[in-house]
Every structure is written in C-alpha cells, then in structure tokens.
Design goal:
single chain, 24 helices, 491 residues, mainly alpha, 0% strand, 73% helix
C-alpha cells in the first residue's frame, strides 16, 4: 500500500519532482565542482546540466527552458544580456522562420495535399515504402545541399503525406508510429548524409582545418569513395531500426486506399492560381538553395546564403497577390494572421541551444575535454577511435557541431600526434560523429525542424536517438579503423 501511495505521489507531482531533480543536479555540480573546473566554467556546466535535465524530464515546456540563459548567464556573470540575447536572433533562427513560413503557405493553399497525394499515387499506400522513399530521397539530396535546407524542403511534403495517411487508420495499423518515423526520418537522413565533403557543415570545417594546418587537401573523390558507402549503410540501418524494430506501422497497400487517393486528386482538380504561385516561390527557393554557389560565382553584386534565400522566399509570400477567384478582396499568399501557425517555440528552443553552446565555448570547456581525452589516451587505435567518436556524437547534442569541430580539431590532432597516430585517423571520426546527434531537438537544425511538426515527443526522440547514436558510433568507428587508412592519410 505504501509503495502504491508513493507511486501515486510520484505520478501526481511528476513536474515538481522533475524540477527538483534538475535543481539538485545543478546545485551539486556548482557546489562540489567534481571536475575541478574554473569558476565560470563550473557555472556554465551546471546551467547546462539543469537545462538538459529539464528538457529530458519535460519539467517545463522546452521553449521555456531555452530562455534560462537570458536570466542565468547575466546574473551569474557568465555573459552580458546583450551577448546572450544575440543567440536568439542567430541567422539559423531566421532560416527556420523563412522555411516555416513557406511551409505555412504551402499548407494554406492545399499545395501540400496535392504533392502528398501525387507521391503516394506513385509509391503506393504501403507505409514502409513511403518511409524508405523519403529516407533515400532526403539522404541523396543532403549529400549535395545543406542538411538544414534539405530538411526544410522535405518538411512540408512529409507533413502533407502524414495528413493523407492519417485518414487511412484501420485495424492492425499504427498511424502514430508512421507519423513519428516519417518526421524523424527526414531529420536523421539529412544528418547521416556524410558521403560528400559538402554534405554537412562539420565536414567542410574539418577539411579546411586540415588544409590550413597540415597543408593537406582531402580529395572530394577520395571522401566520396570512402564515405558514400558509409552513408548508404547508415540510411538503411536508419530504416531498419525505426521501421522494423522500434516503430512498425503495419500500413499495407490497400486498394481502398488507392481509390481514396484517386478520388481526392479528382476533387482537387486543376492547379489554382494561388497554388501555382506558392509552388513557384517554393521551386525558386529550392533552386536557389541548390545553385547558390554557382549564382555567387557568376556575379559579385550579391552573395546568397541559405538564410537570405529562405527569407526572400518568405517575404515574397506577403507581397505576391493570391489571385484567388473565389474571393473578392486582393488577398496575398500569406497574411500576418497566418503566422499564428508558426512554430515560435522551436525558434526560441534553438536560440537557447545556441546560447548554451556559445557559453560552453567561451569558458573553454573544450580545453578541459582535451585534457580529459589525453588522460585516457591509449596506443590502441580502435579504442581511441571509439572514444573520440562517442564523445563527439554525444557532445554535439548540446553544442553547435560546426563550432565543436573547429574547437576540437586542434585538440584531437595534438592527441593523435602525441600518440604517434595519423591525425586523420582520429579527426575524421570526430568530424563524422559531430553530424550524428539524434537525441535532442537542438542537437542539429534538422532535428529541430522535424520536432516542430508536433508529431515527435521528446522522450521518443531521446529513445530513438540514443539507439541511433550507439549504432552510428559503432559503424563510423569500424569504417574509419578498417577502410580509412587504405584511402586517406596525411603524407
């Protein structure tokens, strides 16, 4: 009876217990300083532990937890209020905003439904085939585009497919699993598209570091030969883990479903003027994302990046008339009323993640990490690769992966040289691991975008992400230990 009463109290006051646990963990680290850090570094680490514990335990809304740095860092002398709040207006926040606005317009004018119905009409109504198609398409695109831009492109399409499949809920199926996996798949497939140097920002950052530090240029082809197979393996492992193991959906091909799809397509009729105009903005935005480097190279008047392109597309939606024959008023493709559907919480969430990451960098916790790695160094190459990859994957859950690679690259190179190892042997797995964070929304921009769908609970992302993190560590370590020395090494 007592145990049952205790259990009931735990359930009833779950939020209060969660808040208390976070505060106790924070207090423990700030008062005992078990890692013997400098005062400011100890404070930042304690705040990081508080935020992460509250995120994991869902003690408060995620966006509210993300606001903690605005209060804590200035009050505790970590940074000024002006410096902290700059993180909440980082360019990547506005990249999200632009992408979300384009997605809202696509949904407003039913373009999402038309695209989804057309995709399912081709792939069939089998849930597994739809997910596999999204994983392959997203992974391939992300090898050549920014993984953030790729996820932005796939997000409204995935949302529309979820909307259509939601109407096919029958006995023996699990539509919630389908919804969850489809949104996670576009994020994770973007993250693990490691097959080209330009596939993820950490790859570019590390290649530039090696070129400057060791005057060694890693060939684009060499990278592809080695890591395109890695990408393919990771994509199919991603499919198997989520669809066959963790979240089977049981959605089979259905003739009734096919008939429903055809009927809905007939109801939509021909493309309306607003649909054509929204599609035009979307296509031009995607085109600009794909060819922005070529556009920048052929002229010097303007320089485009992903955020500028997204905001141009978003602003144009408020300017272009809808041209809708069904209304008498001169309506625009988007009005400010439509922004009620904006995922404002995700924008704050990512801003808080950036603020935390910058604080971790400024107090030089990475230097402490280097000392820690060096203290556990071993001449066993495989064990070192596993250690470095593990640290990199889990560290990138709370830190900008580009900043992580920039800061860690010199540390890892020094450790490798001290152990008489090729710096690439430890540096590349560290770089690849930095792109694979899967447990938290702020781990990578694709994670945050997918989380904004509302179909992913934080505990589902943590569970799935932990499994994928472990699998990525194993596969990356094996690839880098057995295959990398055959193709890539410092001369």
């Amino acid at each position: 009876m007592n145990s049952r009463l205790f259990k009931d109290i735990l359930i009833k006051y779950k939020k209060e217990w969660s808040i208390l646990i976070g505060l106790l963990l924070c207090s423990f680290f700030v008062t005992t300083n078990p890692l013997s850090l400098e005062h400011k570094a100890s404070i930042v680490l304690s705040i990081a532990i508080l935020m992460i514990s509250w995120w994991i335990l869902e003690a408060l809304p995620l966006a509210v937890v993300a606001l903690i740095p605005i209060v804590a860092f200035p009050l505790l002398g970590v940074s000024t209020i002006n410096n902290v709040t700059k993180s909440y207006s980082d360019s990547i926040v506005f990249l999200f905003m632009g992408g979300f606005l384009i997605g809202i317009a696509i949904e407003k004018w039913n373009v999402h439904k038309r695209i989804a119905l057309s995709i399912i009409n081709i792939t069939g109504t089998n849930g597994n085939k739809i997910i596999l198609g999204f994983i392959i398409a997203t992974g391939f695109l992300s090898m050549w585009l920014s993984n953030t831009a790729t996820t932005m492109m796939m997000f409204p399409i995935a949302m529309s497919v979820i909307h259509v499949i939601g109407n096919q809920d029958t006995a023996g199926t699990n539509v919630k699993n389908f919804q969850l996996v489809l949104m996670l798949s576009i994020a994770y497939a973007s993250n693990v598209a490691l097959g080209t140097i330009i596939g993820t920002p950490p790859n570019v950052a590390y290649v530039n570091y090696i070129s400057e530090k060791f005057n060694y240029n890693i060939g684009f082809t060499d990278w592809m030969i080695l890591f395109t197979p890695l990408t393919i393996v990771l994509l199919f492992v991603l499919y198997w883990v989520m669809v066959k193991w963790l979240y089977p959906n049981g959605i089979k091909h259905s003739e009734n479903g096919r008939a429903y799809i055809n009927e809905e397509l007939k109801k939509l009729g021909k493309l309306t003027i607003p649909e054509k105009r929204v599609l035009g903005v979307f296509v031009l935005t995607v085109f600009s994302w794909i060819f922005k480097n070529s556009i920048n190279n052929i002229q010097k008047f303007i320089e485009l990046d992903d955020t500028i392109i997204a905001m141009i597309g978003a602003i144009s939606l408020f300017i272009i008339p809808a041209g809708n024959d069904k209304t008498n008023k001169e309506e625009r493709l988007l009005t400010w009323e439509d922004t009620k559907k904006m995922a404002w919480g995700i924008l704050i969430l990512f801003g808080g993640g950036i603020a935390l990451a910058k604080a971790l960098e400024e107090v030089k916790l990475m230097d402490q990490l280097g000392v820690f790695i060096a203290s556990y160094s071993t001449e066993n190459v495989f064990i070192m690769i596993v250690i470095i990859t593990t640290i990199s994957v889990f560290l990138s859950e709370v830190m900008s992966n580009v900043a992580q690679v920039i800061v860690m690259a010199p540390v890892i190179s020094s450790v490798a040289i001290a152990l008489h190892m090729d710096p690439l042997l430890l540096g590349i797995p560290m770089t690849l691991g930095a792109s694979c964070a899967s447990m938290l929304p702020m781990g990578t921009p694709p994670n945050a975008i997918a989380f904004a769908s509302g179909y992913i609970r934080i505990k589902d992302m943590i569970k799935t992400g932990f499994v994928l993190n472990v699998i990525c560590i194993i596969i990356i370590s094996l690839f880098c230990y057995f295959l990398q020395p055959m193709i890539m090494h410092l001369k």
